[in-house]
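User: Sequence recovery, please. Input:
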């Protein structure tokens, strides 16, 4: 009887669980629970093996019999490492360097086993399949879910960007956490990242939102413990971190606040508390950090010398909590430190030392699923794994951390809060909404793809007709109510396009604004595109010339924000915007 069936599953070393798949002869990672008396970790039903075991093993696993699998503690237990090669493989079987020799068997060389990963943000970046393994149900049982009542988009599309809200709360639950700060905190949005993944899944931007940002929190419905719904009233001019916890607000309220603040739709949320930092950093074997100077912080309990360190547990938590050790001792400088720590964690979880260690991978899967609280649309390992499959190809060099640009609150004499800096924030948010990468490396690597785009941009090359010669009919196909009439008034009164008319609502809704025109109207189209800030992708040329005095057709889509608001996303990060790139190790200062 193994450690699981004796009720001491925690003592089983995951490295002991490498077994042979009898169909292929390859070693796979299998957390075996033999016999009917070994209950499922989350349900009483009998677990299914991930592949067909030999018949003898199947017979021994029937009710009333113990499985013929050596336990991790018995005298015949397997080695803590991957078992020795089976007959026909390895140096003792007539094979040298993977090449079959005269006396060798015909089997294939061993392949890598299952990759199980963890770590909230890094958990998604590494990816890997959990389906079919006996640990699956147990990990499902670890995950906590919240019904956000429609705050998210409840899914993601293959050809669209993915936007995840990563929330770190200041809730003091868990062993040893009660002594940190406000022990009675309901759990506010202390650390918040809006993680934007490009639609081609090659790059990502993590936008930090300062907790002390003064913003508006919209009204939000919340699910109560008795199943009823309670709507929390809206508040104006309050700290962003009160979007969670205060007045009973749940993560759905934070999602709605972020969407209103940024104009970026949020698909899902993932939330973790203090324990997540401690357990995940420990599971990965410590997170490398670098300090430009020695630190001894009485509040966070961080006590480190200058130079490089590998932090886990309480030390890791102290590092991300410290506020008075780096920069100007503000929350904005703490955000930079947290970004550097997360970047290092991502690099560590993507490293070969982690991916090649079954013990580390299982510890990460356990820690990550216990640490996470997610919306119902992400409330299972299968759903998290599907998302991980979308994100696993992103290289850390193409992950950029940045912070929503802010200014000191001008209404305060003693500076304690901040407000959005529209001069920097507006173009930055427009870049994210336009799916433009902030990573310089990624921008360089896309140079080849830019050639195809240049052909489209060529539509904007050439003469421009005078405004008085531009003829256009305007229809609203998805913009704010009344957009066609306000745009018409703006064109006529501000731009001199008098030969224009209002078509009212378009017959169908459009996601993107379009301008349809004939080849002999190209100069008019270019002129109107300049006025409206239309990207080349919005121009839809026809194939045949139009009769004289025929107007073009401008249909305003869901991306239209208002007359005079450009639809062309900037292609460079605004000057002065703070950035941390996930592939670069930076010393905290």
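Assistant: Recovered sequence (589 residues):
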């Amino acid at each position: 009887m193994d450690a699981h069936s004796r009720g001491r599953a925690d003592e089983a070393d995951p490295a002991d669980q490498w077994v042979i798949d009898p169909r292929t002869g390859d070693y796979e990672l299998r957390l075996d629970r033999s016999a009917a008396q070994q209950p499922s970790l989350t349900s009483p039903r009998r677990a299914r093996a991930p592949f067909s075991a030999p018949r003898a093993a199947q017979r021994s696993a029937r009710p009333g019999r113990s499985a013929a699998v050596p336990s991790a503690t018995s005298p015949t237990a397997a080695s803590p490492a991957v078992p020795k090669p089976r007959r026909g493989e390895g140096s003792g079987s007539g094979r040298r360097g993977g090449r079959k020799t005269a006396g060798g068997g015909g089997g294939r060389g061993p392949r890598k086993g299952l990759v199980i990963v963890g770590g909230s943000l890094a958990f998604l970046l590494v990816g890997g399949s959990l389906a079919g393994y006996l640990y699956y149900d147990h990990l499902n049982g670890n995950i906590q879910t919240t019904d956000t009542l429609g705050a998210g988009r409840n899914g993601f599309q293959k050809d669209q960007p993915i936007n995840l809200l990563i929330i770190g709360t200041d809730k003091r639950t868990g062993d040893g956490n009660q002594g940190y700060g406000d022990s009675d905190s309901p759990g506010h949005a202390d650390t918040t990242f809006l993680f934007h993944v490009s639609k081609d899944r090659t790059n990502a931007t993590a936008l930090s939102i300062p907790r002390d940002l003064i913003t508006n929190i919209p009204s939000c419905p919340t699910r109560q413990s008795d199943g009823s719904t309670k709507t929390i009233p809206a508040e104006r001019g309050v700290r962003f971190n009160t979007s969670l916890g205060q007045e009973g607000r749940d993560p759905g309220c934070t999602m709605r606040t972020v969407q209103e603040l940024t104009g970026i739709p949020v698909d899902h949320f993932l939330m973790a508390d203090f324990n997540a930092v401690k357990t995940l950093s420990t599971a990965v074997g410590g997170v490398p950090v670098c300090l430009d100077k020695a630190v001894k912080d009485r509040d966070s309990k961080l006590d480190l010398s200058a130079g490089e360190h590998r932090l886990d547990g309480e030390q890791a938590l102290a590092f991300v909590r410290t506020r008075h050790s780096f920069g100007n001792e503000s929350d904005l400088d703490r955000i930079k430190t947290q970004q550097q720590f997360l970047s290092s964690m991502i690099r560590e979880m993507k490293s070969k030392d982690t991916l090649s260690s079954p013990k580390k991978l299982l510890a990460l899967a356990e820690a990550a699923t216990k640490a996470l609280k997610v919306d119902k649309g992400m409330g299972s390992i299968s759903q998290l794994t599907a998302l991980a499959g979308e994100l696993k190809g992103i290289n850390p060099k193409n992950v950029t951390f940045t912070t929503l640009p802010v200014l000191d609150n001008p209404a305060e004499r003693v500076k304690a809060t901040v407000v959005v800096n529209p001069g920097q924030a507006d173009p930055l948010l427009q870049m994210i909404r336009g799916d433009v990468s902030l990573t310089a490396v990624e921008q360089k690597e896309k140079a080849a793809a830019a050639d195809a785009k240049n052909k489209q941009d060529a539509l904007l090359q050439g003469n421009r007709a005078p405004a008085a010669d531009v003829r256009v009919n305007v229809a609203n196909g998805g913009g704010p109510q009344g957009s066609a009439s306000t745009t018409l008034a703006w064109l006529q009164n501000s731009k001199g396009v008098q030969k224009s008319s209002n078509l009212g609502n378009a017959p169908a809704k459009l996601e993107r604004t379009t301008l349809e025109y004939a080849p002999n109207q190209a100069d008019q189209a270019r002129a109107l595109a300049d006025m409206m800030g239309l990207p080349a992708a919005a121009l839809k040329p026809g194939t045949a010339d139009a009769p004289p005095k025929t107007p073009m057709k401008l249909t305003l889509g869901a991306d239209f924000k208002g007359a005079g608001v450009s639809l062309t996303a900037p292609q460079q990060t605004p000057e002065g915007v703070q950035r941390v790139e996930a592939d670069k190790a930076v010393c905290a200062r």
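The chain is about 25% helix and 20% strand.
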